[in-house]
Amino acid sequence: MKYRAELIGSSLFVWDFKSANAIYWNGYYGRPLWVQKPKGEFSSPLVLDIIEGAYLVEKGNLYVSKNGTWLSTSELLDLGRSVHERFDDLYAAYKRLREMGFVVLPGIKFGADFAVYRKGPGIEHAPYIVKVFRPNSEVSATDVVLTGRLGRSVKKKFVYAIVKDSENVDFVGFDWWKP
After folding, report:
1. Of 34, 153, 154, 166, which is most buried, counting CB atoms within 10 Å of its CB?
2. Nearest alpha carbon to residue 5 among 25, 18, 20, 26
């Protein structure tokens, strides 16, 4: 089923509560406005970020309008590029993780690009936090140590998503351990 969203700024709003619930509960996309941690059906609009929205549009599950005009997938992707400097890399990693069956949410509170769940928020804590890189990105030894310590402090495995191109994403996981 295709749902409708309205683009305001760089966020997409699903105003219809029934559609908002269907999108959220069928993959934990977006976040309900004014609802901290949904436990069941909510009576609130759903807010999607541009990466989630682009993914749902590409998958054929969402129409997006801006000022009454429907946007194509390419227009939405172009808008994403104008909003996020690393949009293509973030989108490629997001898409790959979703296609692998993971639930992917913003990871800013963990110092990463994404928080990744096997089942979903409220069911489990995110077991992974993901930072997106290009193959030629510089990563120092200090960065690796900080990554490991951060992952350990929040009890999550820290993963680097290395985006070669829109179809090729490799993942490298870091675990903090003592010999």
Report:
1. 154
2. 20
For the chain, the structural domain boundaries read: 1-84, 86-179
Long-range contacts of 104-113 (CB under 8 A, 24+ apart): 104/130, 105/28, 106/49, 110/150, 110/154, 110/156, 111/150, 112/150, 112/158, 113/161
* Mean per-residue pLDDT over the chain, rounded: 89
Domain 86-179 = CATH 3.30.420.40: no
Identify the bridge partners of residue 168 per DSSP, sorted by sequence position.
165
Q: Catalytic amino acids?
A: 117, 125, 156
Level-2 CATH architecture, domain 1-84: 3-Layer(aba) Sandwich (3.40)
Q: What is the pLDDT of residues 113-140, one digit of tens each?
A: 999 999 999 888 889 999 999 888 777 6
Three-class SS state of 164:
strand
**Dihedral of the alpha carbons of 20, 13, 91, 93, in degrees to the nearest 10:** -40
Q: What whole-number distance in Å separates Cα of residue 25 and Cα of residue 43?
A: 13
